[in-house]
């Protein structure tokens, strides 16, 4: 039994050493706790900071790199359940709290260059008292925003405060996208009020699809994140938890704004449908009136157009103009009748 354990340990160390030169999937890594954040290379992050030093690290990784995937699966410093989760392919928001730490999944927006067909991306993370590990497949707005903040010198006191900053960046990304959708709905509303609804239906459908996607992920995400406010771990600083509560409250407000904009887009679509139905009714009314005006003349022309020998007027001079006058008179009479009945 001891030989088997020793063999597994040696195999794990061999795999980790094979990655010592640094995989391309290491997007960035920083160490916090002593002044300004310090950027780390792959060799630095293989040695975790002492638990009592107050230092902690943030590693941001790309799961598409096979060597990163291999490192996640065999790094014994990370709890087994968290390793399997970080290397997995879950796509719905979830949160798992254990004695060893917290791991979960956040839904975020992809970067503009990678959001051509689907804006939604996912971010796996693991957090304990000494590290925050985030793993993504495609470039995401929240982690990119947080990375730039850290590079500019933003400092954080613990991993929970760093996670709160990440959630704040996620909130700001969704808020920017929501403001853009609000502007788009404003333009569509002005167009609808001007009876220019031809291009508005497809635009509103696209807006509602995006808002429905946001609602489907933001609502469960903010609900599960509420559990972070009650962490009982020793490293869960109370001040950081207060900061986390503020961010989660902001996510609640964002969900309310998404719901309100969704309902507004829905009402605009109903207004467009009402305008189109009204326009169709007007067109049908015009066609009905034209049909009624032409009906007497059509009847007369049909009767005199019969190819029969005893049709009257075949040999009469001026019979054509007489019949034409009769048709015109019947049309005027029908017009007066429709006016009297107030049908138009």
From TrEMBL:
GO cellular component: plasma membrane
Localization of this protein: Cell membrane
Keyword Metal-binding among UniProt keywords: no
Gene Ontology terms, MF aspect: cobalt ion binding; cobalt ion transmembrane transporter activity; magnesium ion binding; magnesium ion transmembrane transporter activity
Pfam family, one: CorA
Transmembrane annotation, as ranges: 284-306, 318-338
Similarity comment text for this entry: Belongs to the CorA metal ion transporter (MIT) (TC 1.A.35) family.
Protein name (record): Magnesium transporter CorA
């Amino acid at each position: 039994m001891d030989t088997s354990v020793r063999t597994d340990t040696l195999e794990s160390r061999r795999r980790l050493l094979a990655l010592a030169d640094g995989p391309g999937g290491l997007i960035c890594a920083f160490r916090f706790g002593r002044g300004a954040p310090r950027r780390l290379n792959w060799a630095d992050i293989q040695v975790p900071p002492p638990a009592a030093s107050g230092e902690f690290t943030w590693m941001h990784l790309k799961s598409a790199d096979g060597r990163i995937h291999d490192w996640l699966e065999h790094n014994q410093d990370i709890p087994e359940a968290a390793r399997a989760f970080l290397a997995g392919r879950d796509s719905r928001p979830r949160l798992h709290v254990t004695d060893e730490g917290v791991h979960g999944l956040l839904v975020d927006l992809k970067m503009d260059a990678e959001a051509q067909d689907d804006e939604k991306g996912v971010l796996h993370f693991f957090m304990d008292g000494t590290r925050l590990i985030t793993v993504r497949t495609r470039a995401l707005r929240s982690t990119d925003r947080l990375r730039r903040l850290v590079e500019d010198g933003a400092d954080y006191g613990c991993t929970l405060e760093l996670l709160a900053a990440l959630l704040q960046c996620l909130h700001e990304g969704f808020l920017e996208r929501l403001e853009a959708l609000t502007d788009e709905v404003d333009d569509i509303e002005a167009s609808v009020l001007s009876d220019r609804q031809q291009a508005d239906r497809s635009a509103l459908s696209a807006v509602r699809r995006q808002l429905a996607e946001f609602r489907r992920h933001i609502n469960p995400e903010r609900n599960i994140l509420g559990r972070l406010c009650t962490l009982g771990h020793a490293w869960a600083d109370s001040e950081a938890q207060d900061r986390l509560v503020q961010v989660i409250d902001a996510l609640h407000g964002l969900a309310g704004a998404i719901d309100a904009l969704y309902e507004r887009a829905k009402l605009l679509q109903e207004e467009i449908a009402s305008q189109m139905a009204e326009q169709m009714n007007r067109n049908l009314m015009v066609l009905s009136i034209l049909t009624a005006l032409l009906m007497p003349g059509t009847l007369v022309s049909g009767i005199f157009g019969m190819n029969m020998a005893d049709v009257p007027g075949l040999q009469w001079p001026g019979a054509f103009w007489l019949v034409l006058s009769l048709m015109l008179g019947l049309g005027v009479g029908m017009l007066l009748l429709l006016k009297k009945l107030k049908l138009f």
